[in-house]
Every structure is written in structure tokens, then in C-alpha cells.
């Protein structure tokens, strides 16, 4: 792998991959032999690559952070070019990308693998309170470690777990850490002193009926109080109170709220498209995510743009498993017009239920 530092220079690549997460790594490895060496570049600013599905296990004390991180240089292929910068702007009409240092990169084929933004700032009072005792989240590596410490500390009171009213990385993760918390409290001998609450914006515990039935039974067996159509609006860390919007059947705020006291609050945060995507209306669907054909993952606006992973405006769950069955992009490179992508999503939960489902299938 060649590390390139650009200094306000123009450059051109046959294939430009934006993002070095699971999706970006997968496609950059797969397509390295489709173009001459040095003609595939990956734009990624981070020094380290985190295996984010492992954050739940870190929060539950089953893995160490050191087991879920590798140097970025070790996961990007040596034959590709690594542009260690951030994406600032997308200009699809010009087939170009502007990096954070002002460099302009042109491409023949663009693969957007930019993930999404974790938006703690969308909950009033949350961003500035993440360091405080009693507040945690497995959605960031340092906070995943803090989550385990919090679960080892709480001895009594209310433990509240949330799921936001936005698309989110692994919509089952907030539920999984709730089940792991139940097990940890039992092992510590304090479970009888702690009330567990799971508040979700959904009208049921999970949005696939087949799995919702089983998960509701599990929650009942574990004495977890589940509340539906609730979305975290704000917190008061001094009073240790969380305010939830009560949602309508259309998942919009009803104007009514409910206040819940917590001793431990685990937040599955709201998420949004990353800034370069959400500020490029030419690429967006009606919901503000990257508009792609659900079968090919090709942009519905630009033929030479494809997407993969969490940045997509598709209906599949945003999980790592969804990027493991990649059979696309060849439509552009090798003129195979009938290549399609089957979204197969898996969400493992405690005591091992694997929730596996595909596009538009309830069972």
C-alpha cells in the first residue's frame, strides 16, 4: 500500500473509494486487480481501523478494545493508494472530490463508503455529558469501554436503554447491550436491585414480526420493561432525568413527552449521513441518504457512482454483515448489466439468536 500526501495537487484515479471502513476495505481489496496498480485510491483519514461490531462485546466485557482495532495500514491493500485525508466536498457533475486540504481528485468510478455520523448532538444535553458517571454508549470505542465500567459499578436503581428515531448502525445493538447488562447484573448479584428499561421508537421491540415475537418473550422472561414509540429528546445529567418524545403512528413527535429517571443511561445515538453527502443534494434520496438502486447499489443520479454500507438510502439494516455479500460494481467495470446485490443482514443477540433477513421480507 502506498501512502500519498497531496499538497493542493490535482490527481486522477480510475477507481476512487471514499472510506476505509468495512465496506471500503472490502471493495478496495476486491477490485485492486481490475485496474493497473496505483489506479485505485482509498480516501481515509484515520490511523486505525475499528471492528465496530465488536463494540457491543467490549461493552459487555467479552472483548478488549485491543482485540477490535488494527492499524489502518494493515487492512488497506498494499497495491492501492491511501490518501490519508478527509472528504470535504463531492462534485459528481465534475467527477471530482475535494479533500480537506483543498486537493481535487478526479475519478472514473466513485465508490462511496463513507458510513454515517454518530450524532450525540441531536439529543439536548447529551454531548457535553458523555464523560459523566451513569451515561454510556457502545457506539464509540472509548464509550464502549466506559459502558463496561458503568455496568460493573451500578448496584441499584434504573438502567435505561434507548433506540433513536433515525436510521442507526446495527439497530439491534442497543437491545443486545441491554441483555448483556442483565447478565452482568446477575453475575454481580445485584439484578434484583436494578430495574431494566428498553425504550424504542418502534411500535414493537423489533421491526420484523417473526423475531419480535421471540424477543418480546425474552424481554418478559428477563423482567425488562419495554416501551414503544419513545425517542430520547434530552437529558438533565444533574437531575438524572431523560425526556422522551412520545411518537405518533407516523413516527413523528406527538407533542407529548415522558420523563424517566435513570441511574444508568445507555444511549443508542441518532445517526445521519456524513456531512459531505448530506451537503450534496444531487446524490440524495427523499430521506437525505445516498440514492442508489436497491439491487445494484448504483447511484440513481450518476452512472459512475456506487455506494456501499451505512451511507446508503436502502431499506436494509446498517450492519457489517450487509457488506459481506458484495456482488456489484462489476456492472460499470466489466459491462455485466445483470449483477445484483442481495442484502443479507445478520444481527446476533444474547444467547445467540441470529436475526437474518433480506429486502422486503418480514420472515
From TrEMBL:
<keyword id="KW-0274">FAD</keyword>
<keyword id="KW-0809">Transit peptide</keyword>
<dbReference type="GO" id="GO:0071949">
    <property type="term" value="F:FAD binding"/>
</dbReference>
<protein>
    <recommendedName>
        <fullName>Sulfide:quinone oxidoreductase, mitochondrial</fullName>
        <ecNumber>1.8.5.8</ecNumber>
    </recommendedName>
</protein>
<dbReference type="GO" id="GO:0070224">
    <property type="term" value="F:sulfide:quinone oxidoreductase activity"/>
</dbReference>
<keyword id="KW-0496">Mitochondrion</keyword>
<dbReference type="InterPro" id="IPR023753">
    <property type="entry name" value="FAD/NAD-binding_dom"/>
</dbReference>
<feature type="domain" description="FAD/NAD(P)-binding">
    <location>
        <begin position="13"/>
        <end position="319"/>
    </location>
</feature>
<keyword id="KW-0874">Quinone</keyword>
<dbReference type="Pfam" id="PF07992">
    <property type="entry name" value="Pyr_redox_2"/>
</dbReference>
<dbReference type="InterPro" id="IPR015904">
    <property type="entry name" value="Sulphide_quinone_reductase"/>
</dbReference>
<dbReference type="GO" id="GO:0106436">
    <property type="term" value="F:glutathione-dependent sulfide quinone oxidoreductase activity"/>
</dbReference>
<dbReference type="InterPro" id="IPR036188">
    <property type="entry name" value="FAD/NAD-bd_sf"/>
</dbReference>
<comment type="function">
    <text>Catalyzes the oxidation of hydrogen sulfide with the help of a quinone, such as ubiquinone-10, giving rise to thiosulfate and ultimately to sulfane (molecular sulfur) atoms. Requires an additional electron acceptor; can use sulfite, sulfide or cyanide (in vitro). It is believed the in vivo electron acceptor is glutathione.</text>
</comment>
<keyword id="KW-0560">Oxidoreductase</keyword>
<dbReference type="GO" id="GO:0048038">
    <property type="term" value="F:quinone binding"/>
</dbReference>
<keyword id="KW-0285">Flavoprotein</keyword>
<comment type="similarity">
    <text>Belongs to the SQRD family.</text>
</comment>
<dbReference type="GO" id="GO:0005739">
    <property type="term" value="C:mitochondrion"/>
</dbReference>
<dbReference type="GO" id="GO:0070221">
    <property type="term" value="P:sulfide oxidation, using sulfide:quinone oxidoreductase"/>
</dbReference>
Amino acid at each position: 500500500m502506498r501512502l500519498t500526501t497531496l499538497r493542493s495537487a490535482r490527481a486522477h484515479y480510475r477507481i476512487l473509494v471514499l472510506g476505509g471502513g468495512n465496506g471500503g476495505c472490502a471493495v478496495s481489496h476486491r477490485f485492486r486487480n481490475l485496474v493497473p496498480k496505483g489506479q485505485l485510491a482509498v480516501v481515509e483519514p484515520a490511523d486505525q481501523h475499528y471492528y465496530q461490531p465488536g463494540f457491543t462485546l467490549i461493552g459487555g466485557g467479552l472483548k478488549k478494545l485491543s482485540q477490535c482495532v488494527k492499524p489502518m495500514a494493515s487492512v488497506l491493500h498494499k497495491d492501492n493508494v491511501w490518501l490519508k485525508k478527509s472528504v470535504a466536498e463531492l462534485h459528481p457533475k465534475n467527477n471530482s472530490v475535494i479533500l480537506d486540504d483543498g486537493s481535487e481528485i478526479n475519478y472514473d468510478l466513485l465508490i462511496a463508503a463513507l458510513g454515517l455520523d454518530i450524532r450525540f448532538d441531536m439529543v439536548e444535553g447529551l454531548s457535553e455529558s458523555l464523560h459523566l458517571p451513569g451515561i454510556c454508549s457502545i457506539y464509540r470505542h472509548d464509550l464502549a469501554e466506559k459502558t463496561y465500567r458503568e455496568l460493573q459499578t451500578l448496584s441499584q436503581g434504573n438502567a435505561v436503554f434507548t433506540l433513536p428515531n433515525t436510521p442507526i448502525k446495527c439497530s439491534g445493538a442497543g437491545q443486545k447491550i441491554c441483555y448483556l447488562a442483565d447478565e452482568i447484573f446477575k453475575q454481580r448479584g445485584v439484578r434484583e436491585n436494578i430495574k431494566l428499561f428498553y425504550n424504542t421508537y418502534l411500535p414493537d421491540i423489533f421491526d420484523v414480526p417473526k423475531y419480535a415475537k421471540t424477543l418480546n418473550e425474552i424481554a418478559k422472561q428477563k423482567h425488562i420493561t419495554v416501551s414503544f414509540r419513545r425517542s430520547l429528546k434530552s437529558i438533565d445529567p444533574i437531575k438524572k432525568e431523560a425526556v422522551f418524545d412520545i411518537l405518533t403512528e407516523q413516527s413523528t413527535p406527538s407533542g407529548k413527552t415522558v420523563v424517566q429517571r435513570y441511574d444508568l443511561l445507555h444511549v443508542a445515538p441518532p445517526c445521519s449521513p456524513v456531512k459531505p453527502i448530506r451537503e450534496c443534494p444531487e446524490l440524495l434520496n427523499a430521506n437525505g441518504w445516498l440514492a442508489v438502486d436497491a439491487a445494484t447499489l448504483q447511484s440513481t443520479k450518476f452512472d459512475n457512482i456506487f455506494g456501499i454500507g451505512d451511507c446508503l438510502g436502502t431499506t436494509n439494516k446498517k450492519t457489517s454483515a450487509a457488506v459481506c455479500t458484495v456482488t456489484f460494481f462489476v456492472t460499470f467495470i466489466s459491462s455485466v448489466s445483470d449483477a445484483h446485490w442481495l442484502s443479507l443482514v445478520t444481527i446476533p443477540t444474547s444467547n445467540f439468536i441470529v436475526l437474518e433477513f433480506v429486502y422486503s421480507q418480514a420472515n
